[in-house]
Design brief:
globular, 5-stranded mixed sheet, alpha/beta, 7-stranded mixed sheet, 2 domains, about 40% helix, Metallo-beta-lactamase, Chain A
Amino acid sequence: MTAREIQIFHTRQGLPIARIPLEVFPDFWAFAYFVQIEGMNVLIDTGSAFGESNHHLEAGLRETGQALGQALSLDSLTHILITHGHIDHFGGLAYLRDRTPARIGVHELDKRNLSNYEERVAVVTHRLSNFLLEAGLSNEQHAQLIELYRVNKTLFRSVPVDFTYEQIGMRLGPIHMLHVPGHCAGQTVFRLHDMLIPGDHVLSKTTPHMAPESLTLNTGLGHYLQSLDALAGWVDGVTLTLPAHEAVIEDLPARIRQIKTHHKERLDRVRGLLATPHTIAQVSEALFGQPEGYNALLAIEEAGAHVEYLYQRGELTIANYAEYESRNGPVPLQYVRCEG
């Protein structure tokens, strides 16, 4: 079986969970999940709506129905649960909304991403612009990364949300929910019996992307590390973890430890770099070189999240504070370790 085929997993109590592969961006795949419980047909995440993503989702539901010995389609869905407010997970909603009676749910802190999408893009674009200038990018680099951020943003339009997770007590039937902000403000993981569907909160190979909280409240490395601890204390008895990308995870506690170690080592490296003043752009280049395309934006956000973490905890100061105080407008900030 390949990663691009439907897979059916069964919980300890025998309930099936179907894993549906979707090409959400060119050569970038994600998984939606289908669960049938207590008379409900629940879809978890929708893909991006980019390219063949919607087609893959519809075909995946049909194949899932065949595997379960019944007819399944978009019209069969009763609920759509969104793990978090990133477009590769909710972008298909605009397409699905007119084709299914399913009620749409998301965590409160990501509701605006769906229901006030255009406003959110405008706000984050403004904040990102300021962050990139303070990070020390040139005007040309700044313009390129802002354009990259805007790519594919017009794929989606605002879609109303029917319910939020805290509103329903963080539970839908036997599906239990845990809010784990960091990668995204409203990131939520779902547990069904002994299986966990964590969205992007924990992946098998990649450490989920971190962006600074200055762009979106309740994201950032500090919230993420706290959420990893919260998850570790919530998953006793979980036998299999089904993330939104990459392979399934059989030993979740070990994977959580690996991710925490990765960030500890990266923070130590950033501390070492900031023995002398550096901008975030310089930290990013030291950590990641000069990546191209969208990876360039991800790299500087990742560097910014680690610098922000140390700055929030009083380990850093702004070396060119006098310039920052005296100038009107963004100033490339140079961070350095505090003495003592």
